[in-house]
Amino acid sequence: MKKRILIIEDEAMIAEAMSDIIAILGHEVIWFESGLEALSTGAGEPFDLAIIDLELPAMPGLEVAEKVRENHPDIKILFSTGFSEQEEEIDLTQPHVAGIIHKPFEIADLQRAIENAISKP
Q: Would you say the pTM of this structure is higher than 0.90?
């Protein structure tokens, strides 16, 4: 089933790679370069999953995730990071947190993370 996936990632090459992979998997993708842009432009749109970089300019990824959930309480969040020490900031026991994808990522790892997130109750 086709899902709507929000990507909030400030590194264009990574966002474009994610977008291409997600589109190949048959899902619709919307990408924003910052949390502020996503919240002001895409806040009202419905999404099934958000992939949010933890290191974003102006507003950290955890704060962006909280604000996204204010508008979409049922959305699943998949965090992305290139820094392993940031994992400690994420409460993986929260039902809306679908996991963490590490950058750089393998295509299979991203696909598996998305499939797990989408299927998470």
A: yes
